[in-house]
Amino acid sequence: MSIDKDTAAKVAKLARIRVEAADLPALAEEFNAVLGFIEQLSEVDVEGVEPMVSVTPMRLPRRVDVVSDGGQQAKVLANAPDAREGFFAVPKVVE
Question: Any idea of its EC number (predicted)?
């Protein structure tokens, strides 16, 4: 696939990048160079290579999944307009 200056102008417009008409041929050449590199990558034999998430073979540390009350009751209720007995107090809505 080859990118011409009209396609380069359309890509620039979609990307909301102002490119002068004189610079469109150079931009089209840059796009073609990128596409050429991508075509080179598709030629690489990756048969038997496992996909990687990271370049370093390590797992992320995980915390222990423990059920708790959070231990922040005072902080949570600090900005409550009305708190009673450790809970939010709200107006009665059902008779």
Answer: 6.3.5.-
Pairing between strand 87-88 and 83-84?
A: antiparallel
88 beta partners: 83
Q: What are phi and psi of 44, to 5 degrees?
A: -70, 135
Residue type, 54: S
Q: How far apart are CA 37 and CA 47, in angstroms?
A: 20
Q: 7: closest CA among 35, 23, 33, 27?
A: 27
Overall pTM > 0.85: no
Q: What residue segments make up the domains of the chain, in order of their start?
A: 5-42
